[in-house]
Amino acid sequence: MVIFVTGDSEDGGMRGLIAWALAAVVVAIPMCGDMAWGSPSHREDFDVVIAGGSTAAFAAALAAAESGARTALIEPTDWIGGQLTSSGVPAVDEAWHSIARADGAAPYSVAAVARLPANITPSFRSALEGIEDRGNCWVSRFCFCPDAFVERQLRPMQQRAGDRLTVFLETVVTSVELSADRRSVVGMTCVARRPRPGVHGYDRLPSSDLPDWYSAEDSPRFTKQVIHFGAKAEAGRTVFIDATEWGEVLAISGHDYLQGVEDVDGGLVGHDRCCQATVFCFAQELHADEVVEPDRPVHADRLGYGAYRDRPDAWEKIWTYRRIRGRGAPAAGDVCLQNWGYSSKLEEGGNDYPFGCLLLARSDARRQVEDWAGGVDLACLKDAEDRAFAWHQWFRRQAPPAVGPGRIALCRSVMGTEHGLAKLPYVRDTRRAIGLDGFVLRFADLTGPVDQRTGTVFPDRIALGAYPADIHPIEGCSMPAYCVAAHDTLPFCIPFRALTHRELDNLLVAGKTMAQSFLANSATRLHPIEWSTGTAAGVAAAHMARERRSSRQALDVIEKLQNEVARFTPIDWTMPP
Predict the structure, then answer these.
(1) If 0-12 CB within 10 Å is exposed, 13-18 middle and 19+ buried, where does residue 40 land?
(2) From CA 439, how far away is CA 450, in angstroms rounded?
(3) DSSP one-letter code for 130
């Protein structure tokens, strides 16, 4: 698909304000499945349009709708929630670290600060506290089955947003249209797919099915509908958000973006194929009796326990690491989520895939723009899938005699797929924006002397986060020394500028697509922080649409925007007594 360039126009005055008020009370917009399927659809009735697929995207959609905006969420799978659900990482990563003090005083517990309820986005806290059946894992306080989390937690939240939120499931972005001066997004074209009778939709792996998702043509597996989301022609304005997992709007906009590790923290020059490892997660179930599950004909080498290689309890520790159902010692009925790392030092590991970058190089992505298909390396994607299956088969063969390899099989139901892997891979870094005036959030902004207690307190702070730097490097790519040495962070603030785009005044970003360095992303990519930044972006987008403001104009009235955001998520740290 090409990038179209059209004229840009806006109306103002009282007529716009009246139309905005009426928009909040009109009847529900038909869901995508209720439209005249197959014929192209043109929509200009949304105030906020979110290109999604991430945890941040869903949080942004909720917040925008609850702020009064008519909101569209474009979701590439049939599950909302991103890494919480469709990417198969249903173990919430919270800050766990403490920082030693030079004077020998008690260490500063960043974990204690981050886990204080007052510092967690209320909607996220409510979702986690409402989990009825937590698994007994040791990596997190919150391990759960993703299928249950979608049905019991996320969909009720979507329903409470009411008529102001329309979710377009199984829909992908294929092109972006810019204004004549290339300063605004005026449209976004998407392709929605509907599985044909008898087709599950997730029986084929993404490496083989992805091109079909992005094609506008009907196929033997899916019927398609092209949906064009246009900027509102009259009252108010439409604000777009890129909260995709692969930074797709950034890539097809034709403007510059960041990808891979930079030569210096916060710089704009780097290595676009030197990124973090991706991983295809899956779940294993321990049955009471032996089950028949033939091995798949896949190959992957250097499989092993990695950092746990010399531990006599390595198998059980990995089994319980992200256990999402079960208690105590491994027992029938257990469901274990597999997301096990790779040790470059020992040259072995689990289903983490460290042998290539999932994202295409910038030059290859540019060549794909006219026929966009996600901008990912399908060969890398397939190898990651193969490694996941190979790890499943290797790990179950290592089961102790009391467990027995023949009792372990893929648990397809909790992942919502026929093939058994997550619907999409978990990505740790993606294409990232460059913010207003070239702003890039640096890792240096997330840390500092212990006595400082928080990272940089930006005057335009709008979200919070806390997690140490966590890089899963790929083989053959040497990380700069500043990355290797980085780890601890203080509780940090995320400014509004990190949610903006340097060239596009009505495009915001959230989650991994934020204007941030590669190293900063390694500390901001976790579930609570994605939810916080997504919430802030949703409120900001609704504000910009309602007040007819650009991101620059929103920054000029930052105190007003902060007051609105603070109703939905904390923007200042509360310290434990």
Answers:
(1) exposed
(2) 25
(3) T
Cβ-contact 68, 24 below 8 angstroms: yes
Question: Hey, CA dihedral for 147, 432, 206, 33, is it positive or negative?
Answer: positive
Helix (H) or strand (E) holding 251: helix 248-252
Q: What is the 3-state secondary structure (H, E, C) of 502-537?
A: CCCCCEEECHHHCCECHHHHHHHCCHHHHHHHHHHH
Tens-of-pLDDT digits for all 577 residues of the chain?
333 333 333 333 333 333 333 333 333 333 444 456 878 899 999 999 999 999 999 999 999 999 999 999 999 999 999 999 999 999 999 999 999 998 889 999 999 999 999 999 999 999 999 999 899 999 999 999 999 999 999 999 999 999 999 999 999 999 999 999 999 999 999 999 999 999 999 999 999 999 999 999 999 999 999 999 999 876 668 999 999 999 999 999 999 999 999 999 999 999 999 999 999 999 999 999 999 999 999 989 999 999 999 999 999 999 999 999 999 999 999 999 999 999 999 999 999 999 999 999 999 999 999 999 999 999 999 999 999 999 999 999 999 999 999 999 999 999 999 999 999 999 999 999 999 999 999 999 999 999 999 999 999 999 999 999 999 999 999 999 999 998 999 999 999 999 999 999 999 999 999 999 999 999 999 999 999 999 999 999 999 999 999 999 999 999 999 999 999 999 999 999 8
Of 543, 455, 466, nearest to 499 by C-alpha is: 543
* Residues 278/427, Cβ–Cβ less than 8 Å: yes
Task: Classify domain 5-273+428-565 by CATH number.
Answer: 3.50.50.60
| CATH 3.50.50.60 domain locations along the chain | 5-273+428-565
Q: How far apart are CA 357 and CA 191, in angstroms?
A: 26
In the three-class reduction of DSSP (H, G, I as helix; E, B as strand; rest coil), residue 459 is classed as coil
In the chain the first and final C-alpha atoms are separated, in Å, by 56
Q: Give the long-range contacts of residues 210-216, CB within 8 A, separation 24 or more.
A: 210/373, 210/374, 210/376, 210/378, 210/381, 211/373, 211/378, 213/76, 213/170, 213/172, 213/373, 213/374, 214/172, 214/174, 214/372, 214/373, 214/374, 215/191, 216/174, 216/191
Q: Give the span between the Cα atoms of 533 and 554, in whole angstroms.
A: 16
Return left, alpha or beta for 389; rule: phi > 0 is left, psi -120 to 50 is alpha, else beta. alpha
